[in-house]
Amino acid sequence: MRRIALTFAALVFLALPAYAWNKPGHMVTGAIAYAELKKNDPATLAKVVAILKKHPDINRWNDLINRLEIAPEDRDLFLFMQAARWPDDARGTTYDRPSHHFVNIPLKPGATGSPAIPVGDSILVAFDENMATLADNDASDSEKAVALCWIFHLVGDVHQPLHSVKLVTAQFPDPIGDRGGTRFFIKPKANGGTISLHQLWDGLIIGSQNFQTVRNTATELRERTGLQRSDLSEIAEKDFLKWCSVESFDTARDVAYSDGNGGPLQGGSTKPQAEVLPNGYLDKAKAAAERRVILAGYRLADLLGANLD
C-alpha cells in the first residue's frame, strides 16, 4: 500500500504545473549548498539549520520527515531541500509573492548595448528585501526563516535563464513579449505533446522529488568533471544582478532561444502553432541548465557563508 501511495503521489506531482526550476530542481540546489557547507563551513551550516527550525512550516516539514522515514543524519539535508522549494509550496497562501520569481528583461534579437532592467517588483527587488530581513536585528526568528527560504529559492530562480528575460519580436510584441517563454510553444519530439519553452527549461534538471533521487542528482553534479568549482570561471562573480542580467540573459539568448545552428529557435505563439525542437537542442539545453544549477548551489553556499558568519 505504501508503494501504491507513493506512486500515486508521484503521478499527481507530474500533473502539476512546473515552476522554476521545478520543485525537485530547487531541491537539488538546496542539496548542493548543504553538501558544500557541510564540507567547507559547518559553522554556517549549523546557523542555517537553527534559523530554518523557526520557520512557520517546521511542523509540516517534521511530519514529512517522519512520514518519509528520513534518517536522523539526513534531516538537516531534508530541511535544506524543503527550504529551497518552499516559495513554490507557498503559492496561494499569505506568503505567496508571484512577481518575486522573475524579471522580464527584454531580449530583442539583434539589439546592441546592455538590456534595460525593468523597474518595479521583481526577483531583483525580492532578493534585496529578503537579504535585508535576514540581517535585521529587529526581525523575528520566523521572519528571518521565511526570508532565508526566499533567498534559497531566488538564487535558484535567477539561474534559470527564462526567469530573467522575455523575448520581444514581431511574433511576441511588447509589452508582454513571450513572458519568459510561457507563451512560446514547442514540441520536444515530433510525435510528442506541446509544452511551453519555459516548462521545458523548468524540468531539465530532474523530474522526481524522491529524497534519494534528489540527493543522488546533487552528488552526481558536484562530482562530475567539468562542473567542479575550479572548472567554473563564473564562480568568482558575486553580484546577483549580473547572475541575472548578464549570465542568465546570455544563456537565454545563446542557448534557450537559439536553434544551435546560428539561427533563432522556432516556436508558436499558440499551442497549435508549436514547432518541433531541432536535433541536438535538448542536449545543449540540458548541459547549460546543469551548469546553471550547480552554480546556483555553490553560490548559495557562498552567500550563506558570507552573511551568516
Automatic annotation (TrEMBL):
Organism this protein belongs to: Singulisphaera acidiphila (strain ATCC BAA-1392 / DSM 18658 / VKM B-2454 / MOB10)
Gene Ontology annotations of biological process type: DNA catabolic process
The protein's name in its UniProt record: S1/P1 Nuclease
Pfam families hit by this protein: S1-P1_nuclease
Signal peptide: 1-20
Keywords: Disulfide bond, Endonuclease, Glycoprotein, Hydrolase, Metal-binding, Nuclease, Signal
GO molecular function (one): nucleic acid binding
InterPro entries: PLipase_C/P1_nuclease_dom_sf, S1/P1nuclease
